Amino acid sequence: MSTTVPNPQSIPGTNASAVSRRWRGITSTGFSRVLGVATLVLVVWLVLFGLLFSPPDQTQQSSVRIMYIHVPTAWVAYLAFGVTGLSSAMYLFRRAHSLAWDRVAGASAEIGVMFMALTLITGSLWGRLTWGVYWAWDARLTTTAFLFVTYVGYLAVRRLGGSHQARAKRSAVLGLLAVIEIPLVHFSVELWRSLHQEASVANPSGDVKMDGLMLFSLFVGLIAFSLLYFWLVLHRQRAMYLEDQYDDADLDVALVERRAETKEHSRA
């Protein structure tokens, strides 16, 4: 005696294609499109000011133009890891334990790792032009590399097996621990003897010794890369939501098929 196994495609809301049809376009909204256009305009603006309009440095000459990428990427990496830590705390300490906070934390960490990688690359290029070497075991460089590796590990932990809630809980604990490293990296040039220069703009004395157009170009870069970060987080956390929906749909299909198999064996 046999029975027909239900076709998963006929089960409402339990297959990936149904999820895809239902949530098509979810990563793009009117706000995200406006944000994307604004980001693109500011990036073009940064390229023009950074490469053409801003003057060369008296000492570093044109190599100082790397600053317009290096400093904003470092800032965005700090911002991203800070948001990961804050979102992790919101997941752990709020009663609802909403997975939305976990997805924001994960998306922000992924983008932070990307920008931290760009920070290390541009920093090594700048170091080659300034110090004569691509890498020196300097306090700032070493702590930055350690921070990068820590968040790569965080992303690896997120990929471990288990339920969505289990992923969120272990990731949140690690996210709160990892964020402690940010002050260590930032103040490393003051805590230890370092080849890396101290802050030129955000220094405690408030004495900014920088050409006005250079300073303006740097702030354009900070705003442009910040907007780029927020645009990427919006899309990535929405994509992660879809991934969770696909996982849940696959689980529903597996459960339906398993129940059908059990029913078939019981009737045989």
From TrEMBL:
<feature type="transmembrane region" description="Helical">
    <location>
        <begin position="73"/>
        <end position="93"/>
    </location>
</feature>
<keyword id="KW-1133">Transmembrane helix</keyword>
<dbReference type="InterPro" id="IPR045062">
    <property type="entry name" value="Cyt_c_biogenesis_CcsA/CcmC"/>
</dbReference>
<feature type="transmembrane region" description="Helical">
    <location>
        <begin position="212"/>
        <end position="234"/>
    </location>
</feature>
<feature type="transmembrane region" description="Helical">
    <location>
        <begin position="172"/>
        <end position="192"/>
    </location>
</feature>
<keyword id="KW-0812">Transmembrane</keyword>
<dbReference type="InterPro" id="IPR003557">
    <property type="entry name" value="Cyt_c_biogenesis_CcmC"/>
</dbReference>
<dbReference type="GO" id="GO:0005886">
    <property type="term" value="C:plasma membrane"/>
</dbReference>
<comment type="similarity">
    <text>Belongs to the CcmC/CycZ/HelC family.</text>
</comment>
<dbReference type="GO" id="GO:0017004">
    <property type="term" value="P:cytochrome complex assembly"/>
</dbReference>
<keyword id="KW-0201">Cytochrome c-type biogenesis</keyword>
<keyword id="KW-0472">Membrane</keyword>
<feature type="transmembrane region" description="Helical">
    <location>
        <begin position="105"/>
        <end position="127"/>
    </location>
</feature>
<feature type="transmembrane region" description="Helical">
    <location>
        <begin position="139"/>
        <end position="160"/>
    </location>
</feature>
<feature type="domain" description="Cytochrome c assembly protein">
    <location>
        <begin position="35"/>
        <end position="196"/>
    </location>
</feature>
<dbReference type="Pfam" id="PF01578">
    <property type="entry name" value="Cytochrom_C_asm"/>
</dbReference>
<feature type="transmembrane region" description="Helical">
    <location>
        <begin position="31"/>
        <end position="53"/>
    </location>
</feature>
<dbReference type="InterPro" id="IPR002541">
    <property type="entry name" value="Cyt_c_assembly"/>
</dbReference>
<dbReference type="GO" id="GO:0015232">
    <property type="term" value="F:heme transmembrane transporter activity"/>
</dbReference>
<dbReference type="GO" id="GO:0020037">
    <property type="term" value="F:heme binding"/>
</dbReference>
<protein>
    <submittedName>
        <fullName>Unannotated protein</fullName>
    </submittedName>
</protein>
